[in-house]
User: What shape does this take?
Amino acid sequence: MFDFIKRRLVNEKGAIDRILVILLFVIIGVGGIVGLSGWWNTTQTTVETSATTAVTNATTDASSTPSE
Assistant: This one.
């Protein structure tokens, strides 16, 4: 089976080059998705922490302010 595929690719002019370019694009795409996912998780955690801190500070300030 592999021999058939190999012969077919050798017979096609430029087929190997196309396959290598496609594999390169796949690797770049997967790397991009993994990188974006990692960045998104880090950013989401940072925003959640900042929001929690802001809400805590706001509620603490509001409860310590004397009402008139």
